[in-house]
Amino acid sequence: MKIIGGVYEHDAIFRYLDLYVHDIGELERVLQMYPEEDKIVCWMMVNNITGVVFNVEEIGSLCHKYGAYYIMDTVATIGHYPISNDLESFCDCIITSAHKYGGPQGTGCMWVSDRFANFLGLSNDSHEEQGLIHGTPNVSAAVAMSYAMEHAVEAVSLMQDRWQNLTFHLQRMLNKNGVECDLVCNDQPKIYAINALYLPTLNADALTQYLSTKSIYISPGHSACADNDDYRVLEAFGLTKQEASQTVRISFGESTTQEDIDALVQGIVEFKNLFI
Questions:
Q1: pLDDT surpassing 80 at residue 214
Q2: Among 199, 235, 236, which residue's Cα sits nearest to residue 218?
Q3: Quick one: pLDDT at residue 34?
Q4: DSSP for residue 90
Q5: Number of domains in the chain
Q6: Is residue 150, in this structure, part of any structural domain at all?
Q7: In Å, what is the CA distance from 102 to each residue of 47, 74, 119, 139, 252?
């Protein structure tokens, strides 16, 4: 068994990969290396740090071409970007985390294709969720999660333009106030609910701590589950380690307003004036 994935995966998945790749061409070469082995490929749809959207249908079709099973992480996708209704044509499994789209903490769900279910040897008994869950499920949490998912999916088209406008407003206000900034991966397909913003000369860890004292919460440019100096994903997108250490991750939700952006800009300007 070989577990293969993109270098961009969340640490929760990346730590279990046998091999990682940077692009689809490299993925095809690796798949060709193991024609007789069972292969599982993990590749997220939307990157949780930069907001980059990967061509998952092409990735999944390539996996099926070489007999691999494709697991798609949609934790940063649901509520931010539409997902195909024809999943089984290219995908074998998707995973979600409910708190990312307004559902209860500690809940999530997974869809598994018939093909992957057979490979895993899952049960046909729906009473215990095909052998994946034993005992009494938390029905109220599951119902709340499903309602939250429905709302998030329905709101996607309405929110995308709004998030893009907020991102552009953020850049304009920073430039207006003399703060140099660059939106990482803005030349690639991406969502604007998740942004990696490079702020030259500003240390991301120090800035996020300073802003938290003002109840403004952003993140450094690495996974919350990773070590403080683990900039694997940003380096994979082409940043140097120094540039990555000066990059923050800014996420928007349904309730984010222009006033929130103005408060963030004011906090960044204050930090720069105090410490640079």
A1: yes
A2: 199
A3: 96
A4: T
A5: 2
A6: no
A7: 19, 14, 32, 17, 13
